[in-house]
Amino acid sequence: SITISPELFEKLYLSPENKVKGNLRKTFGNPTPVALVGFVVALSPLSVELMGWRGATVNADVSGRGANYFFGGLLLVMSALLEFLLGNTFPAVVFFGYGAHFLSFAATFQPFYAAISSYTTDGSQTQTPGFAASFSFYALFMGLLSLIFLICSLRTNIVFVLIFTGATLGFGLAAAAFWSAAKGLAIAATLLKATGGSFFVAAMCGWYLLAVIMFATLDLPFLAQLPVGDLSTLIKGQSQKKK
């Protein structure tokens, strides 16, 4: 068996080291980078579409398909189950939460579920003020969930903090964009672009974190030492302070 430092443990599992029974972490592989693959591949195209790069647009008929189901939803939920079995509560909750989000987002914009067409008289996928006003509350509370994750991540690393910062701002701006769209305000388009920018920051930080974990896993010379700004030993836990 190999003993790893608290800094390396946090880098690999995105959580301060905790004591659990058994040796499952030494028996099975690390599911954390699998979740990051799902997160970045699902979020990166969406963020670019929201910003309108090179003429890309978000289409309600297709944006709920593909990557959101099989990368964002499937990989994150699978990884969450494995993190749960390894005793890594925080990453498990994060991956379950965002995995469910990608599945919910995909289902909302999938015509089969009629989440949008139920608000129209002709059964089309045209987003009505009623739908926009209602969906904004979903974005708002996803922002609240991301804010809780952001506060918890202060005991992990700076890159993880930046991911949750981008996600929190992105969901908050998305809520504002949908509310503005419901009111017919022109600023809605600008807010959606800002949403894409915030999500893009989260996605790029996710790509960096994925690379760092994979390089550390394979113990690549030089690259294995890429920094993430470890905070697990800098910010002491409540139990550590009592001791």
Automatic annotation (TrEMBL):
- Kindly list any coiled-coil regions of this protein: none
- InterPro entries xrefs: AceTr, Gpr1/Fun34/SatP-like
Report the GO molecular function annotations: acetate transmembrane transporter activity
Q: Does the keyword Transmembrane apply?
A: yes
Q: Give the transmembrane ranges.
A: 28-47, 67-86, 93-116, 131-151, 158-179, 199-218
What does the record say about its membrane topology? Multi-pass membrane protein
Can you name a GO cellular component term?
plasma membrane
Compartment(s): Membrane
Q: Does the keyword Transmembrane helix apply?
A: yes
* Keywords noted in UniProt: Membrane, Transmembrane, Transmembrane helix
Major localization class: membrane
Query: What family does this belong to?
Result: Belongs to the acetate uptake transporter (AceTr) (TC 2.A.96) family.
Question: What is the recorded name of this protein?
Answer: GPR1/FUN34/YaaH-class plasma membrane protein
Q: Which organism is it from?
A: Hyaloscypha hepaticicola
